[in-house]
Amino acid sequence: MMDEIPRRRKYWAAILEGKTADASRPFSERDPQKPGTLNAHCGLSSEYKAWTCAAGLKCTPVVNPEKNIEIGECLPETPMAGNPCEPGLISQTSNAHKDSLKPLAKTSCGPGMFCETTRVGFPAGMCSGGCGDLKPGETCGAIAVLVGFNNCLAKSRPFSQCLAENTRPGALQACDDQTACRADYICMKTASGKGACIPPYFLFQLRVDGHPSPI
Questions:
Q1: What is the DSSP letter of 154?
Q2: Fewer beta carbons below 10 Å: N end or C end of the chain?
Q3: What are the C-alpha distances in Å from 105 to residues 85, 116, 129, 188?
Q4: Where are the beta strands (DSSP E) in 122-166?
Q5: What are residue 72's DSSP bridge partners?
Q6: Nearest alpha carbon to residue 39 among 142, 195, 173
């Protein structure tokens, strides 16, 4: 969508000026003519060699089919908040109920960071840390303290109370209308007005509590 809007603007500008508009449309996944930005899908096989990454980013496998590793994600060469940290391989069978994910070794999140795991709701894991020393491309958001939050709900206490009493600040990837989140994450507007990448169902919980509208 970030590339599609400028394409449409250019197309209609040509029409309004009486010129011949370029009706070609890039592949919907991404434009192979441009280096991939942060979190863009990229090529790990010769078939997708045109799907490159911009300077400072490396095409990294995250979660792929076990027998066909072709697509990666453009990730920083130096880890930052929001990066995946639990890569894996998916085995596929004719019976979808028997598909499974084989975890691979966790990837490093760098000094002072740790891996928020898939088990507690972060697809492919998510690097995070404190908010005291944020790097470029990071912002501070709220992350639920899982055990305390669930125990509070189990006691039939108000959702708003459980959320207010069981969150902690955490470093997240910053996002906006020009910077996309990873696959399976969405951009949420924080109390500071900045965008932060979180799993989509986290956003639903925060919106129930009257959280600012998402970006």
A1: H
A2: N
A3: 9, 14, 20, 29
A4: 126-129, 138-144
A5: 42
A6: 173
**Looking at the predicted structure, is the pLDDT value of residue 37 above 70?**
yes
> Which residues, including other chains, have CB under 8 Å from residue 66's CB and lie 6 or more apart?
89, 90, 91, 92, 102
Which residue is it, tokens 């490396």? 58
8-state DSSP, 193: S
Cβ within 8 Å of residue 111, ≥6 positions away? none
- Give the pair of three-digit tokens for residue 25: 């449309």
Element (H, E) at 57: strand 57-60
CA distance 144 to 165: 9
Q: Tens of pLDDT along 182-203?
A: 989 999 888 788 899 998 876 5
Over range 101-125, report the average pLDDT.
Answer: 92
* Among 129, 126, 124, CA closest to 140: 129
80 — pLDDT class (breaks 50, 70, 90)? very high
Cα(172)–Cα(164) distance, integer angstroms: 19
| Neighbour-count burial for 54-89, b at 16+ CB within 10 Å, e otherwise | eeebebbbbbbeeeeeebbbbbbeebbbbbbbbbbb
Whether the model pTM is above 0.85 = no
Nearest 5°: phi and psi at 126? -145, 125
